[in-house]
Amino acid sequence: MSHDYLSETPLLDYQSPAIQTLIAQRGWTVLSDGERIGGAYDFVRNEILFGYNSDDALPASQVLSDGFGQCNTKGTLLMALLRALGIPCRFHGFTIDKGLQRGVVPELVYPLAPRNIIHSWIEVQYRGEWLELEGFILDLGVLTALQAAFPERSSLCAYGAGTDCLQAPNVAWSGKSTYIQKTGINRDFGVFDSPDAFYADHRQLTGFRGLVYRLVIRHWMNRRVAQIRAGYVPSIPGGDSNLVPAKSISIKKEAV
Asked: Which class in CATH covers the domain with range 17-243?
């Protein structure tokens, strides 16, 4: 089966003027492959803030315009930037347990949230192997606030984080895989050439629930994220038992 890991798609719209202008301004095209990956990765990680967009299946240019995103939308933007820079990449789809979002999802509506939430990371081909990139999801401000709020914790599965090494997570690009929500994963859908192919079969924000999310709940969640970034981490009813990491699952691997 042939694969296409470099093409533009409706979601990976890297020929859009905004994305091409960004690439030109940053000078990424003259860098080595590792530096190209690092430049795009660092931009998406920290200059596109952690937050919740109106949908998962947004074009990369829209995520760039929003200036914020979560796992799925930030991943779309990173994939578009990498493909524009000639770096092969693909999409890996999952679900995560909703407990990972507790503390961000308001408690009033938390019971109504689906148990399994669509999640993804991207995989980049570098030096003959596929690396898994997930550590770009939380910007430095949010991650630093969580580390300060839980200085004695190593494991955390709440507030948008799912890690067993909170105080020193592997989130910086160093030519290796990066993670920040991995311990919340509870289902693996496998790899796809593009986010377009995944969302053709896997959508969550639909119908009345999706409308309420887009119009009300996500704005509430974004205010909570802003509070966390500012240093106020809301408590979770029920105590520390809610912060035990979700059970990890075996992740499917594919050869180069």
From this structure: alpha beta
